[in-house]
Amino acid sequence: MGTMTATEFAKNIKKTLDRLEFGGEEIIIIRNNHKIARLIPGSHHLTALEAMADLYQTLPPDAAKDWAEESRMHGKLSEEVRDPWDS
Questions:
Q1: Taking a C-beta distance cutoff of 8 angstroms, is the pair 1, 27 a contact?
Q2: Per-residue pLDDT for the chain (87 aa), expressed as one digit of tens each?
Q3: Which domain holds residue 10?
Q4: Are 64 and 87 in contact (CB under 8 A)?
């Protein structure tokens, strides 16, 4: 595991990303003597489920309700299906 300052990261972003991707190295970013980020190498291959796993976080809050209502209206979604956005 390597460490670097935020300034070093900003100046050497390509080299840093190469270290992550090709070297598999974990890197800690430090700013003002505090650890602010940990960069870890990503998986080389993602399944469709992994690639879409956080899609719901990019949608506006009312999107889930509208989607569920429209799907039920057209008979594509059972009333028994739980709304994943309902807390």
A1: yes
A2: 899 999 999 999 999 999 998 888 999 999 999 999 999 988 777 777 777 777 767 777 777 777 767 766 666 656 665 667 776
A3: 2-39
A4: no
User: Is the four-CA dihedral 43, 46, 49, 55 of positive or negative sign?
Assistant: positive
What does the chain come to in residues? 87
Instruction: State the CB neighbour count (10 A cutoff) for residue 29.
Output: 19
Q: Which residues contact 5 (CB under 8 A, 6 or more apart)?
A: 29, 30, 31
SS3 at position 51: helix
Domain count, the chain: 1
Query: How much is the pTM?
Result: 0.49
In the block, tokens 């993602």 appear at 46
